[in-house]
Design brief:
Length: 76
């Protein structure tokens, strides 16, 4: 994907995040336990919700999104 997509992803998704996705993340991802493999982790928005996971392995092919994802993982 182009750099423009990864740069705009979080700001463009924020309204949807507030309206719906945050609730989904809080209710579903919070239930993940043990070892988790997340394919297409994007900018790492799910990371703070893996509270019961022992280990999270994330794969993100886009280098710019992966960079954001790694930063977010450090704070999760």
């Amino acid at each position: 994907m182009g750099k423009w997509f990864s740069k705009l992803y979080d700001p463009v998704m924020e309204p949807l995040e507030r309206l719906k996705f945050r609730y989904i993340r809080e209710t579903l991802i919070h239930k993940a336990k043990g070892n988790v493999l997340e394919i297409g982790s994007g900018t790492g928005l799910n990371f703070p919700y893996y509270t019961q996971a022992v280990k999270v392995t994330a794969i993100e092919p886009d280098p710019t999104m992966r960079k954001k994802s790694l930063k977010r993982a450090e704070h999760a």
